[in-house]
Inverse folding.
């Protein structure tokens, strides 16, 4: 069956929310019945509602008829201008997910083509992403490289005292 790629809109809010939760379950190796953090579905829905309306997020859908085959997203970010990025514009690719029945057909690659083109059209000089072990080979073949100069600190949910 032929796939149709299209940009998602507010009318796709429930489909986007469901696909994001499905992707989280896949990345975290959770069953369909495993509990998710309290409030996560509402937070995902609110994120899409606000980010799609403001234009700070582009969500793409790959559809086989009415069936969702894959998703991908691009967060558009404004950051402090730097030597390597004087405009201070960057993109963060996220939520690349392909239904297992559609894997191995180049869909994620096509999604990357569309998302990186969207980032270029909007003036981004770089795009970043987080990956799983399963996705790493695809992103490396596409040209993504690991960086040595980025670190992350996971913060507690409660504010700590100094």
């Amino acid at each position: 069956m032929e796939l149709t790629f299209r940009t998602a809109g507010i009318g796709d809010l429930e489909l986007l929310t469901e696909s994001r939760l499905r992707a989280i379950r896949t990345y975290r190796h959770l069953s369909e019945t495993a509990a998710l953090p309290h409030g996560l579905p509402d937070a995902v829905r609110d994120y899409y509602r606000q980010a799609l309306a403001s234009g700070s997020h582009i969500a793409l859908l790959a559809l086989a008829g009415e069936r969702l085959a894959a998703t991908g997203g691009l967060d558009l970010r404004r950051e402090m201008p730097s030597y390597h990025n004087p405009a201070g514009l960057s993109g963060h690719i996220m939520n690349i997910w392909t239904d297992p029945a559609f894997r191995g057909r180049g869909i994620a690659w096509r999604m990357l083509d569309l998302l990186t083109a969207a980032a270029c059209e909007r003036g981004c000089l770089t795009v970043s992403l987080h990956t799983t072990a399963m996705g790493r080979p695809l992103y490396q073949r596409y040209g993504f490289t690991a960086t040595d100069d980025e670190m992350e600190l996971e913060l507690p949910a409660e504010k700590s005292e100094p």
In short: The mean pLDDT is 92. The longest strand covers residues 67-78.
